[in-house]
Structure formats: C-alpha cells, structure tokens
Amino acid sequence: MASEQRAVSRLIAQAGQMLLAHGAESTLVGDIMRRIGLASGMNEVEVSLSASSLVITTVYDGHCITTARRCPDRGINMRVVTQVQRICIMLERGIIDPPMAQHKLEKISPARYNRWLVLVMIGLSCASFSRLAGGDWSVFTMTFLASSVGMVVRQEIGHRHFNPLLNFTATAFVTTVISAQAVTLQIGNRPELAMASSVLMLVPGFPLINAVADMLKGYINMGIARFTMASLLTLATSLGIVAAMTLIGVWGW
C-alpha cells in the first residue's frame, strides 16, 4: 500500500500544482487536493500553500508521506482548472480510479485562443470603453489601433518569455505613444479618452480579485503575495505610461 500511497500523493501534488500555476483561488486549490486524496482512499490529507510552491501530507493507516512541489506561474487558464475539477468529481463518484485520474491529468493541456482573435477582441473592448465614456468614432478608431498594436507587443514579448514586469512596461509605453497621437493631432472630440482607454487591457483584475478572496478566506500569505505581484504589474504599467507621456510631451489625462 506504501507504493499506492506514494502514487496518490504524486497525483494530489500534480493536481494542486496545475491549479495553482494556472491562477486558481487558494481555497479551491486546497479543497480539490483534499477531495482527490480522500476519494483515492487516504485517511487524511493536509495541504500548505505558498506563492510559488505547495506541500502536501497524506496519511493512510498511520503511515505518513509528505511531498513538496514548485508551482511556477503559467498564466491564467480556466480550462485547466475546470478539467482538474472534473477529474476530482469523477474520482469521488467512482467513475475512474487514481491511475486513470493520473493519466487524465497528464493529458490536460491549456487551451489557447487564436492570437489574432484575442488581438481584435482586446482592441474592440478598449475602444468600446472610450465610446462609452463619450468619445466619437475617431476616438474609437484611435483606441482600437493603439490597444491592438499594444497587444501585439505584449504577445511577442510574452512569447519570448521576458519578465512580466518588463512586458507590461513596454506594452504600456508603446500603447501610450500611439494613443497620444490623438491628443497631438487633435483627433476626435475627446482625444484624451484614447490614452486612458487603450491601456485598460493591462489592469491586473484577476490577480487582484484572487488576492482579496484569498485574504478574506484565511490565506493571508497567498493573498499578500498575489496583491504584491498585481501592484508591481500596475507600477510597471504606470512607468510605461509616464515614460511615453514624457517622451511625447502630452499629459492628456
């Protein structure tokens, strides 16, 4: 049974690793890991989470196994989270056994939207904000152009695995340089809206929401770590915007 317990411990650790790496809330990560362990026959499962790692302990017939895993950030992807949840439910209902669950976990791959579809949708969403704020179609067009080009920069830098802080700074800089032309050339009725709306794609909303949720539910260290990272991303964005405004000489908003 010791070998089976080790296999279950690895299964639990891999599931938690995938959840934490792809942006799941800490409460959900701990809950899913415990449920997988209990559904696999363990008497007790203890979980400890930190910003970049996790530690689990399984107990079966008085025999204790502890394992630790690093959890590098792999980007927010809710498809991975829902697939792991589905495997947990199938285990609890007896549809699959732990070896089959391990096999299914290994087959999970993050789904990626087409990059050009993402680019267009980001451009439309930022441009729609400018329109809702009172901008005309000229402002809408400039916002769409600036945010779309900024998204290309963000995708290319991310594809080359640069530091996210550098990515956000460069993206904010390029986006603001382009949108500032609306103010310089007086394009549209309220050109300053293009500058404000085009960088909204860089707001780290999901990490901030998870940070608050973690702190409210007792995962203080995780919440602080996530809030700190979100704040650093916001600071990086601000530096890019200020650098672009200084270069162009436009302080529109």
UniProtKB/TrEMBL annotation:
Organism this protein belongs to: Vibrio proteolyticus NBRC 13287
Localization (cell): Cell membrane
One GO MF term attached to the UniProt entry: transmembrane transporter activity
Coiled-coil parts of chain: none
Family the entry assigns: Belongs to the ThrE exporter (TC 2.A.79) family.
Domain Threonine/serine exporter-like N-terminal: 10-247
Protein's GO biological process: succinate transport
Name this protein carries in UniProt: Threonine/serine exporter-like N-terminal domain-containing protein
InterPro entries in alphabetical order: ThrE-like_N (IPR010619), ThrE_Dicarb/AminoAcid_Exp (IPR050539)
Membrane topology: Multi-pass membrane protein
Origin organism lineage: Bacteria, Pseudomonadati, Pseudomonadota, Gammaproteobacteria, Vibrionales
